[in-house]
Design a protein that fits this description.
The chain is an all-alpha fold. It contains 21 helices and four strands.
C-alpha cells in the first residue's frame, strides 16, 4: 500500500515514491489522450481513463472561465484608463487651443493698433472656431482668475444672504416684489408679440431674392423701398406694443422687446445686403439665387421651391446664431454640451436676481424730495457718488449676462464655434479700443454694414462715416431706452455724442497705465449719471403726486424732472 504522511497543519500528502508513481500515471494518461487509443492501453482501465479525462476537461473549463474573466477585467480596466487618459488629453488640448487662440487674437489686436492699412476697412468678417475670453480666463488651467471669480461669488452670496435675513426679520419672508414685477409680469403677451415679430421677419427671404434677381433699376428701387417700409413697420409695431397697451409692459420686458426688435431688424438687413451683393464675392458668403420662373407683367423671377426651402432653413438658423453677420455656413462644433448650457443658464438667472437686488438697494436714493423737488449741485454730486458702485456693477453684470452667458448659451445650442463676442475691454487705454472690444457682435455689424458701406458705396470720408456711425448707434440706443421707459431723456445720446467722441480724440494713441485708470473713472461717472437721471425721472412719473398722469407727445418729450428743476423754461 502507498504510504501517506500527515503534515503539521493536518494535511495528508503522498510519499515521494507514491508521488513519482502518480506522475508517471499522469504522463501515461496524457500519452493515451494524445494518441486517442484509450481502449487499447493495457496499463489503465477504461473507467479510470474516462475519470481522468473528465477531470482534465473540468480543469480545462475552469481555467478557461478564469482566463475569460481575467481577460474581461483587464479589458475593462484598460478601457477605463484609456478613457481617463483621453479625457485628460482632450482637456489639455482644449485648454491649449484656447490659450493659442487668445494669444493669436491678442497679437492680432496689437498689430492692428500699431499699423492699420487702408485696405483693412474692406476686409470681410471671417469666422473661425475660438472660445470666449472669459471661458479662457475661467478655465481650470488658470487658477488665478478662477480664484478671483470665486471671491466675487462669495461676496455676492453673502450680500444676498444679508438681504434675505433682513427681509425675514422685518416681513418673515423674502421680498420678491421687485423680481416678480420685472420678470413674471406680462410674460405671455411678451412671447406672443415676440413670435409675431419673429414670423413676419421671414418676409425678407423672398424680398431679398426679388432684389437680387430684379431685371431693371426701377424694379430694384421698388423692392428696396418695400424693404425700407418693412423695417419702419417693424420698429413702429414694437414701439406701439410697448407704449400703447392698456397695461404697459414692465420696464425690463419693454427693454427686452425693443432690443429683440432691433436685433431682428439688423439680422434682416444683414441677410438682405448679403443676398443682394452675392456676386461681389462669387457666392463665397451667400449662394447664388436659383430662379423657378418669371412672374408675368412685372418681369420678376420667383425662387424655386427647393431653393426657397433651403433659404428659409438658413435664415431660421441665422436668427438664433449669436452673430449679426450673415453667412450661408458657419464653423460648428461636434456636439451640444448640455451641462455647459445648464451651468450658464443658472449663472444667468443668478445675475438677473442680483441685478434686481442692486436696483432694490439703490432705489431709496431717489425717493422723496431728492426727485420731487429741485435738486442742488451738492445733492446731485452726493447721489451720483452713491450710485457709482451700483452703476459699475450693473454695467459689468449686463456685459457678462448679455455678451457672455446668453451668447454662449445660444452658441452651444446652435453649435456655433466662433465665440469671440467681445475683447479685453477692461484693459483698454483708449476709448476707440473700448468701443471696439466692448460689444464685438454689434461692432462687426456697424463696421461691415455702416462704416465700410458708407466709405465704399456712398464715398464719404472716414471721419464723416465714423461720426455717422456714432450718431446712428446713439439714436438706436436712445430709441430703445426712451420707448421702453416711456419718456424722452436723451442723456445716453448726449454722453455718446459729447464726452464719448471727445474721449476718443483725447485718448488717441495713448498706451500708459494712467489712461486705463482714466477710462474706468469716466465709465464709473457716466454710468452713475445715467442711473441718477433715469431713475429720478422714472420715480417722478410713477409717483402719485407727480405732475399729471396724461401721457401725450408733449409730456413724453419734456422730462418732468426738467419741469421741476427749471419751471420757468419748461411748462
Amino acid at each position: 500500500m502507498p504510504v501517506r504522511r500527515a503534515q503539521g497543519d493536518g494535511r495528508i500528502v503522498d510519499s515521494p515514491k507514491n508521488t513519482k508513481k502518480r506522475t508517471k500515471k499522469y504522463d501515461e494518461i496524457s500519452q493515451i489522450i494524445d494518441s486517442g487509443s484509450i481502449q487499447d492501453s493495457g496499463n489503465l482501465s477504461y473507467d479510470s481513463c474516462l475519470m481522468r479525462l473528465n477531470y482534465v476537461e473540468n480543469e480545462k473549463e475552469l481555467l478557461q472561465k478564469k482566463l475569460s474573466k481575467l481577460e474581461s477585467d483587464t479589458i475593462s480596466i484598460l478601457e477605463v484608463k484609456l478613457e481617463e487618459i483621453k479625457t485628460s488629453m482632450d482637456f489639455k488640448i482644449q485648454s491649449l487651443s484656447k490659450e493659442l487662440y487668445y494669444l493669436f487674437d491678442k497679437a492680432q489686436d496689437e498689430s492692428k493698433s500699431v499699423t492699420i492699412k487702408s485696405t483693412n476697412i474692406y476686409k470681410r468678417k471671417e469666422f473661425i472656431p475660438r472660445p470666449s475670453i472669459f471661458s479662457i480666463m475661467l478655465s481650470q488651467r488658470d487658477e488665478n482668475y478662477r480664484t478671483i471669480f470665486n471671491m466675487v461669488l462669495c461676496v455676492l452670496i453673502l450680500w444676498g444672504l444679508n438681504l434675505a435675513f433682513d427681509d425675514m426679520r422685518e416681513k418673515q419672508m423674502p421680498d420678491w416684489d421687485l423680481l416678480t414685477w420685472g420678470i413674471v409680469k406680462d410674460l405671455k403677451p411678451f412671447f406672443i408679440h415676440w413670435l409675431i415679430m419673429f414670423c413676419t421677419s421671414f418676409v425678407i427671404v423672398p424680398l431679398a431674392h426679388f432684389a437680387a434677381e430684379s431685371r431693371g433699376f426701377p424694379i430694384f428701387q421698388m423692392v428696396v423701398l418695400i424693404y425700407i417700409i418693412l423695417q419702419g413697420i417693424a420698429f413702429y409695431y414694437s414701439a406701439t406694443v410697448v407704449s400703447y397697451r392698456d397695461t404697459p409692459f414692465s420696464m425690463p420686458l419693454a427693454v427686452g422687446l425693443m432690443a429683440e426688435q432691433a436685433r431682428m431688424s439688423m439680422k434682416m438687413h444683414s441677410y438682405f445686403r448679403e443676398k443682394i451683393l452675392w456676386y461681389r464675392y462669387n457666392g463665397e458668403y451667400a449662394c447664388r439665387p436659383v430662379c423657378g420662373g418669371i412672374i408675368p407683367f412685372i418681369v420678376l423671377s420667383y425662387p424655386s421651391f427647393d431653393y426657397f426651402v433651403k433659404e428659409v432653413e438658413k435664415y431660421f438658423y441665422f436668427m438664433f446664431v449669436p452673430t449679426l453677420i450673415y453667412r450661408d455656413e458657419y464653423p460648428r462644433t461636434n456636439r451640444i454640451r448640455w451641462e455647459y448650457v445648464l451651468l450658464h443658464l443658472g449663472e444667468a438667472l443668478c445675475i438677473i436676481y442680483y441685478a434686481f437686488l442692486i436696483f432694490r438697494t439703490s432705489y431709496p436714493n431717489f425717493e422723496g424730495n431728492i426727485s420731487l423737488k429741485p435738486i442742488n449741485s451738492y445733492d446731485f454730486i452726493h447721489v451720483t457718488f452713491s450710485c457709482m458702485g451700483h452703476g459699475m456693477t450693473l454695467m459689468i453684470f449686463t456685459h457678462y449676462l448679455v455678451l457672455h452667458l446668453v451668447q454662449n448659451i445660444f452658441s452651444e445650442l446652435t453649435r456655433f464655434a466662433d465665440r469671440k463676442f467681445y475683447g479685453e475691454w477692461w484693459n483698454s487705454r483708449t476709448f476707440t479700443v473700448f468701443y471696439r472690444e466692448w460689444n464685438g457682435v454689434v461692432h462687426d455689424f456697424i463696421h461691415s454694414y455702416l462704416y465700410t458701406d458708407m466709405i465704399e458705396y456712398v464715398k464719404l470720408p472716414k471721419i464723416v462715416s465714423l461720426l455717422l456711425c456714432f450718431f446712428i448707434s446713439a439714436v438706436v440706443h436712445e430709441y430703445i431706452v426712451c420707448v421702453a421707459m416711456g419718456f424722452f431723456l436723451p442723456i445716453l445720446a448726449v454722453l455718446f455724442g459729447g464726452p464719448g467722441v471727445i474721449f476718443i480724440l483725447l485718448t488717441k494713441n495713448k498706451t500708459g497705465r494712467i489712461w486705463n485708470i482714466f477710462m474706468w473713472l469716466m465709465l464709473s461717472t457716466g454710468n452713475a449719471m445715467l442711473m441718477v437721471m433715469y431713475c429720478r425721472e422714472y420715480y417722478v412719473r410713477h409717483h402719485p403726486s407727480s405732475l399729471g398722469s396724461t401721457l401725450d407727445f408733449h409730456d413724453f418729450m419734456v422730462p418732468r424732472t426738467f419741469r421741476i428743476q427749471f419751471p420757468n423754461y419748461f411748462s
